[in-house]
Amino acid sequence: MRPEPTGEQRELQEAVRGLLSREVDPDRLLRWENEPAACDPVLARTVAELGWIGLGLPTASGGGGADLSDVACLVEECARGLLPRPLLGAIRSADALATLDPADPLLPDLASGRGRLALALDEPGGRDPRGWKTALSGPRGARVVDGEKAYVPDAEGSDVHLVAARDGGSTAFALVDRRTPGVSVQALRGFGGDRQGHVGYRAAAVLREIAATDEALARVQRRQAALALAEMTGGMAAVLEMTVEYVKMREQFGQKIAVFQAVRHQVADMGTTFTAARHLAWQTITRIAAGAPRDVEEASAIAWVGQAFKRVCWTAHHLHGGAGFVVEHRLRFHGERAQSLCIRWAPEAPALREIAAALLD
Amino acid sequence: MDYELSPAEAAWRDEVRGFIRRNVDPGLASETRLKGNEGRGPLALRFHRALRDAGWWGIAWPKEYGGLGKSAVEQWIFIDEIESAGAPMLPLTVTSVAPTIMRVGDEQQKREWLPRINEGGIDFALGYSEPEAGTDMASIRTHAVLDGDEWVVNGQKMWNTMAHSATHNWLAVRTEPDAPRHKGLSMMIVPMDAPGVTVQPIWVWPGLRTNALFLDNVRVPRSNLIGDRGAGFYYAAMALNFERLAIGSVGMGRRMFRNLVRLVRERVVDGRPLKDEPWVRERIARLAADLEAGRMLGLETAWAIDQGRMPAAESSMAKVFVSELVQRIADAGCEILGLDGQLHPEEPTALVEGRMQWLYRLAPMLAFGGGTNEVQRDIIGFLGYGLPRK
Ligand SMILES: Cc1cc2nc3c(=O)[nH]c(=O)nc-3n(C[C@H](O)[C@H](O)[C@H](O)COP(=O)(O)OP(=O)(O)OC[C@H]3O[C@@H](n4cnc5c(N)ncnc54)[C@H](O)[C@@H]3O)c2cc1C
Known about the structure:
The structure holds two protein chains of two kinds.
Chain A lengths: L6 H17 L2 H8 L7 H9 L18 H13 L4 H16 L6 H6 L4 E4 L14 E3 L6 E10 L6 E8 L2 E8 L5 E7 L5 E11 L2 E4 L2 H36 L1 E2 L2 E2 L4 H29 L6 H25 L9 H16 L2 H13 L1
Helix pairs in contact in A: 1-4, 4-7, 5-7, 7-8, 7-9, 7-10, 8-9, 9-10, 9-11
Chain B lengths: L6 H17 L2 H6 L10 H12 L18 H14 L6 H13 L2 H12 L5 E4 L15 E5 L2 E8 L10 E7 L10 E7 L5 E7 L5 E13 L3 E2 L5 H16 L3 H16 L1 E2 L2 E2 L4 H29 L5 H26 L17 H14 L4 H13 L5
Parallel strand pairs in B: 1-4
Antiparallel strand pairs in B: 2-3, 3-7, 4-5, 5-8, 6-7, 9-10
Helix pairs in contact in B: 1-4, 4-8, 4-9, 5-6, 5-7, 7-10, 8-9, 8-10, 9-10, 10-11, 10-12
The structure holds flavin-adenine dinucleotide.
């Protein structure tokens, strides 16, 4: 056992922290939210040039060849420093494509930041892949995709969509050029300003098709969840750190508020929650990285860490009072990400159901 | 023991509901959702006029001041129904500042301010907080010095909500620099159009606007100091007590919950009715029981006031419980609606107009604002159960 990052991982995190502390602040985040690409093109280029987006991609595709744990370390630190969500999304979607086909010709473009890929999984009817209706059809060489995808992150800002679809009885993924006829995107803004879209595919020409299995889809989703866990522990670390600093500095009644027992206890609970959440998260991340099959501990991490992040944010907001409530405060960005990460990648109910089934059925 | 509303109280509730049916339409409800609208849009103002026309502006005011003289329980019923309908609340000018002026102002001050408030001509922003004076209100630094027949006010207020639309500020200022902290403050009415008053917007997480207020040699008539010099801390505490009665109401929570229940009843997710999910059923049921518990706490507080008691511990219980319950409602709403519920409130397809997300963002402020929950818990311990302070 060695429940802490390696020296190399630590170095990576320090480099990330240095850059983000210089380049990202709430005022810029607010400004970028209103820009068409929802992030700064210069920062996007820098991030790609530093190899962050391609870190986990095969070296043959222009990537860094790192494993999921390293990518999660990167993502954890990026979340801590509030890297704009489209860039975190770029790391995630590159991982999804590489998981399905490590030799896909799009990967070098993703690694270099020339191309952006959106993950089109969920459908308006729900999130269970067995119920998805989007389907591939047509003869070889002229394949098309039909269907509807919901809440696709970065649907409009991306160049290519990775669309989960049915192909007869089995699962397949289709790469579809966003600008190809038959693709219509209804842009939506999520809670906290992130860009999403409802996408309709009407006989949309398929660029490339990746035959897959239900297992491959599950693998993609597990890795996405692992990266979400890393985002959550990164966010939690930042929130805990800023709260510790704040209660040591803020004075009321002639003393630091940290002196109040009620305040100290809340900080202590935040710390306990964060510490447990981080280990739960990393146990799962490292197991997924090692290719282990899904286990109850993985479901526990999903069920626990998201709720923990929300609790930590809630307490932090409370301890910051009005000061943390202004739109320009870093805290509220984490509070938003906590809830939206939880909803998308770590909903508690299905994870609890899975744990119960493992124990009781 | 009897837990039912009396026939008169029930009749009053029905009257309030009738009024709401006649005067609240979807336009009004959606106006109150607009960004930066804190209940002062044209439709809200029209609703307020209807309240005044009905003689309901001062429902809690004694009849001698032109009020309805309703009991605390009847007020509570009114607040609960209004919030539950999503209509704009009575302004704090009417429910918090005016009752304080009634109790502590001199006769001339009552004659000067109460009729104008009652006519709707005066709207206060509440100026207690400062950058360094939040929970610890006694550390206020904004100060006023007497110069002839005028006070000269200097300083900065923070979180001065409504300052941009108010006619006046209900301002806590230090007038007795040499007195002990709690005894050095006074409450003063400052017209917003007085020279030297500057307002700067502050936007907060749920999309609401509040303000920083700067006072630079602002001259205010001597008679605008309400009640006694040096008693401002206690007057502010009194006004805040009146304010808490509204925070401790479960009306808003009930409205959000009702909307959530309506959605859960009709939605189908992954081919299954959402209402058939055991965890959804449990969460919903638990919240319903919580709301009933919160209603009891609020009602008990109101009832105790009508018995002539000062139910400080009870009102703190209601405030703590309801503010934390609102957060649980918001979080359950976000989880239950899932991806369908996480759209930005300004998206036309956002479920319940994005109100669950909005509530998630609003909730923290209910806990640290209006007298932070830690202090409320202290009050429950000290005043409710006589726990020793030292
Ligand atoms: C949107 C918004 C609108 C507002 N509108 C108004 C308004 O119109 N007028 C107005 O005057 N004010 C207004 N406020 C201010 C509000 O009343 C304050 O935020 C509140 O009093 C808390 O003060 P603070 O934010 O400075 O937090 P602080 O007092 O600094 O508290 C920080 C943390 O310390 C804790 N703490 C403080 N003292 C103690 C203690 N003794 N024991 C244990 N814990 C303690 C608190 O619980 C909190 O968790 C508004 C605030 C917001 C955010």
